[in-house]
Fold this sequence. Notes:
This protein has helices spanning 2-26, 33-39, 44-50, 54-78, 83-100, 106-111, 117-143, 153-165, 185-203. The longest helix has 27 residues, at 117-143. The protein is built from nine helices and no strands. By secondary structure, it is mainly α. The mean pLDDT is 92.
Amino acid sequence: MGTVTDHQDIKKEKILEASYQRFLHYGYSKTTMNEIAGDLSMSKALLYYYFPDKSQLYVAVTRKLANEFMDKLRERVGGSANILSAFKAQIDTHHEFMVSNYNFFDFFRLNDQNLPTAIWEIISQIHQTEIDQLTTALVKDIDKKEIQPIDDPAAMIDLILDALHGVRVQSMSHKKAGFPLKEHMEEIHQKRLLLIEIFVKGLSC
């Protein structure tokens, strides 16, 4: 029984990897289940056995990407010396992740606020991981008396993350907030790094 399960897991991993490459290079809208099946030399019927439709396959790939991102986030933020370097690690890791996977996220740009519940659950899980990791770093600095005492460190981290998320480029400041253009992402990245220095300076003893 275990051998059958292992074989199915290996097959599913191959499907996820092939699908990721397709979504990354062509985007969600220009990728078909037929093409993914062709890349794997697999029948479409077998592909549908594992994933009933393209949207469920996309969610599964997104979940795999998110897990990899959260692992990297824990490693980088967890290894930071203080809250400023922890926030910079979070900002840098998020930026690298978004830029390197930009085409993959065309599904987010097309659907904006109408994302499936499963995607929002993944986003919430990432956000909570960021809060947990950064709160740990903040509490350490409070204990070292490098940061002023804070009644609710997790709420403070959540507030700062919301502020960082709201950073926009000047040309988009008057428009509805949406998924940023790739050419704007480095400017947003630099503004977030500058903003976090201002925030942390205000919290320092």
